[in-house]
Design brief:
single chain, 5-stranded mixed sheet, 6-stranded parallel sheet, alpha/beta
Length: 302
């Protein structure tokens, strides 16, 4: 079973406007609310692929009630730990560009943390835990390390800064930085595919079993200890960048958990991420299948 951890879930309140004017009163021409948070995004994509994931993490307040209700409507299992504080609302403005305002998140009390740790006993050795996203400020900076120490199963980790290096000794199944994040991790400028491959291999050497580096509109690169694969870009209209990276993670772990080869799991990751980028919300199974036929992966000798 695949579990996804979201420590700081949100309502993603998406508003579409004609244009953004600083200091002006803006009126949306359309709006919608989604349950958000990186782990939840992963679960939504997994569900679309036909998997049966379980969401864990923290939820509270009327916002938490909305998030839980929407997840249940999607048929997704959840075992969130209830907290006193209200889960956050993130505002996403869509116009000719995108502007996001992400809230800080609620305070989580120590007894709520202990209750969450107790819930981890449900995880079994052959399960997989997807860890992703930022921590609420009230959680200890080593919270994810504590989680890893309490689970008997493999895990993936997707965090956007050099702190990911602290987790590689625990041998994650997957890390998935984008090109810019890879540069930040190693405090260097990444310019060429050769640079990407060299630093992705460093992640391998430090303990990451598999690495996918997203290149945005230029495709992506997969690296493990045996080979390098590159997927080229797929033509289409960018509709939604929120959740595309999470969808790549979901596609890859789905593939591995259903006995696909790493190459085929990578192709599914590419199709899943692209399907979400070309959709208003998380990519559907039909969209993923459509794009999967267009995914071309080439092996590199670098």
């Amino acid at each position: 079973m695949i579990y996804t951890l979201t420590t700081n879930p949100s309502i993603d309140y998406v508003m579409r406007i004609d244009e953004f004017n600083h200091g002006a009163t803006l009126r949306s021409k359309a709006s919608v609310m989604y349950p958000g948070g990186k782990g939840i995004m992963v679960s939504k994509l997994l569900k679309n692929l036909g998997d049966d994931p379980v969401n864990i993490g923290f939820l509270g307040g009327f916002t938490g009630d909305f998030i839980r209700e929407e997840i249940v409507k999607l048929g997704i299992k959840e075992n969130f730990t209830e907290i006193k504080g209200a889960s956050r609302i993130n505002v996403k403005l869509k116009y000719q560009d995108e502007t996001e305002i992400n809230a800080e998140g609620p305070h989580i009390e120590e007894k709520e943390v202990e209750k969450f740790f107790a819930s981890l006993k449900a995880l079994k050795e052959d399960d997989l835990l997807v860890i992703s996203g930022s921590l609420p400020k009230s959680l200890d900076k080593d919270f994810y390390k504590e989680v890893i120490g309490k689970i008997p199963c493999k895990f993936t980790i997707d965090i956007a800064n050099k702190e990911v290096l602290d987790y590689l000794k625990y041998k994650p199944v997957l890390v998935k930085p984008n090109k810019e994040e890879l540069g930040k991790i190693f405090e260097t400028k990444i310019e060429t595919d050769e640079d990407i491959i060299a630093y992705a291999r460093k992640l391998n050497e430090l303990g990451a079993e598999n690495v996918i580096v997203s290149l945005g509109g230029e495709g992506s690169i997969f690296v493990d200890k045996g080979r390098v694969l590159k997927a080229g870009p797929i033509e289409g209209k960018l509709v939604n960048s929120v959740g595309a990276g999470d969808s790549m993670v979901a596609g890859f772990v789905y593939g591995l958990s259903h006995d696909l080869s790493k190459e085929d799991a990578y192709k599914l990751a590419v199709a899943s991420g692209t399907a979400t980028a070309f959709s208003p919300d998380i990519g559907s199974k039909e969209k993923i299948d459509e794009i999967l036929e267009k995914v071309e992966v080439k092996e590199s000798g670098n």
